[in-house]
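Q&A log
Question type: sequence-to-structure
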Amino acid sequence: MRYLGIIEGFYGTSWSWSARRDYPQFMANVGLNAYIYAPKSDAKLRANWSEPWSDTEISALQQCARDFQQRGMTFGIGISPIGLCDASQGDSGAKARQNALAQLDHKLDQIASISTDLLCILFDDVPSSGDQMASMQLALCERIRARAKTKKVIVCPSYYTTDPVLEKLFGPRPADYWRALGSGLDSDIDFFWTGEQVCSATYSEDNLQLIAEQLRRPPVLWDNYPVNDGAKLSRHLHLKAFGGQPFLTELTAGHFANPMNQPYLSQLPLATLAFQYTQMSEDHASHAGAYVNVDSYWRQVAKQQMGESLAADLLADIERFQTQGLDEISINDKALLIKKYSHYSSVYAEEVVAWLEEQYRFDPACLTG
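Response status: OK
Response body:
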């Protein structure tokens, strides 16, 4: 099965459980088939991954999984076992590592109790641990897969793009890192890739072919659009449709979009992802023609989701929100916009107003956006 879905993998304000419960029906309506729970705000998946979820948290995740699975969709969880690939050496270090691995086993048992279909092992945004980085990650992946009771595994490498910003932030990529992962991972394990940049606006055939050759399989795209969690990105609302590039159908094994901190406004671009793949499959010749069609589809979805009046207002302001951004909107114009969108009784309008009122603050933990 080709995954076309959503990975809730951003920094900052996470979605509410009620918003997540609205997503299975929305995704079914627009042709998406998989959802991955991996918000950076859930420290028990990342910085504090060794801390077990409470019974209340487990219950919420079990309900979330059921909501998606009952509509025939894949439910996944992404865990970042930070620290397990740079354990100290010596007797004390070995003992600490064994304790950490036992804690990991317990977390994997909790994940199994949620009836997770897809497990993502995420090594993103961590410092380089040198030449042994790939071998340590491979050993950890093997242990996790043996313990986890999931149908599918996707790995996010620490260097998930050719963008040089990762080496500036986290240290040099070890020599042959990608080749070592590719030769060591079982062929039925996929990996994530963001393209030539952390937030790639478009994708390159050469880049996708390069990483497929290095890792010995086509990548699953982790698309950092419409995400808006970084210092610059948080000043914008990314509302426009996805662009279609016909070669993606042949050079990738799936496509997950990382959405905005605003769950309902994220639906506007997310609604066009599966539509674009349908268009690309039907017409490989005309990217321009596909864009016209997807733009019309975007308008249709916006009217269905929000009503004609709010959709018209949002379309009129889309360049201001997406391109201009908060820092270029005057105080007077901001006040007028808040007044306009406060007139609507709508979760979409509420998110616009909250954004205009600076309620979605940049999370400094996000170093790449």
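Response note: The first strand starts at residue 3 and ends at 8.
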